[in-house]
Specification:
The protein is mostly beta strands. The protein has a single domain (3-130), classed as Jelly Rolls. Helix content is 3%, strand content 50%. It contains 1 helix and 9 strands, in the order αβββββββββ. It has one helix at 3-6, and strands spanning 8-16, 20-26, 31-40, 52-60, 67-73, 88-92, 98-99, 104-111, 120-130. Strands 1, 2, 3, 4, 5, 6, 7, 8 and 9 form a 9-stranded antiparallel beta sheet that branches.
């Protein structure tokens, strides 16, 4: 009945032009990731070799983890194109959606080659609910 009041969003923005992994938030209590949207200031077409993979990962409590929580790409094989300033949803991995208290979520921007991006402003919105809450 009040599930909408339990939802929380984590926001991250940065100008990226090369591969990067960034810590974006530490879980204050166990949480479940219910969705992730990436917004890009530029359109990115699908391509066989020049594409971007976006991931939200669980870095764990020691910032060393690599568990993929959500991902998507602009690869010509299995990916989709991105429109400028339009939500690009990442697919949440249900088996990895729960994040324990104190764990850090990270965002990975991974270019397949070096000529994909030109200082893109990336905005990431991670939607969460506390573990045990209705989703």
């Amino acid at each position: 009945m009040f599930a909408d009041r339990l939802r929380q969003t984590l926001n991250f923005s940065e100008t990226l032009s090369a591969d990067a992994t960034r810590a974006i938030a530490r879980a204050d209590g166990a949480l479940r990731v219910t969705g992730v949207d990436v917004f890009n200031a530029s359109a990115v077409a699908t391509h066989a070799t020049n594409y971007i993979t976006f991931k939200v990962i669980n870095l764990g409590t020691d910032a060393q983890g690599t568990t993929v929580v959500a991902s998507a790409s602009t690869s010509q094989t299995g990916g989709t194109a991105m429109a400028a300033h339009v939500a690009f949803p990442l697919t949440v991995v249900s088996a990895a959606a729960e994040v324990s208290d104190g764990s850090t979520l990270g965002f990975v921007y991974d270019e397949a080659t070096t000529d994909v991006a030109n200082s893109h402003v990336i905005h990431v919105v991670v939607k969460t609910v506390p573990v045990g809450s209705p989703s």
